[in-house]
Specification:
By secondary structure, the chain is of the alpha/beta class. It has eight helices and five strands. Strand 2 (55-56), helix 3 and strand 3 form a beta-alpha-beta unit.
Amino acid sequence: MTFYLGKRCLTHEESPETANMIRNFRSTDNTVMVLGYAKAGSHLTLSILDQLGVNRIEKLVAGDELISSIPFEYQLQSNQKAYEIMERRLKATSELLILPHCHLAPNYFPTNFRGKIIFVERDARAVAVSAYHMFTKLSSLKPVMDKYQANDVNIFAQLMFQNKLWVGRIEDYNNAWKKHFDKKPYSVLFLKYEGNLCTYRFRLSK
């Protein structure tokens, strides 16, 4: 579901039921979603929003209704009622609330998203290096990395740039989203990881 152009791993985390649940997610005007290719800078953007005083939805604790900080598309791993809880919390306030960050491709994104999207881009070379070091630390991805013989950061980067890995290319992902944004009236702020942080704070505060 997360990975682009039909190249998947971790298929046990996907199902038509989950895909439909995500597409039918009911957002509100006060919803904020940080969106982008994995390792493009979602966590940096979230930390800037923290500094601006915007609340993350997972930090609103109510009994056992816990929301994880893992990506939006994987929330059912931690709580089978996660999307229902998020919808309820969004409706209960008029203040901005940040959903867990998201790496979904356009065809899996909530169909009638009403909130604000912060779309993060990053240099493909930096993404490749960051992804390599993260993936090599995940035991669940070791069989996949071995299959692609991606045991060196330079080999991994070359495979990614040539679109030979299961995650697809960041350029294709970004272009697909920009085409999708042109077709639908989303409220979108585009940010680049390599941009000036002071400028980011100013733009986000607006």
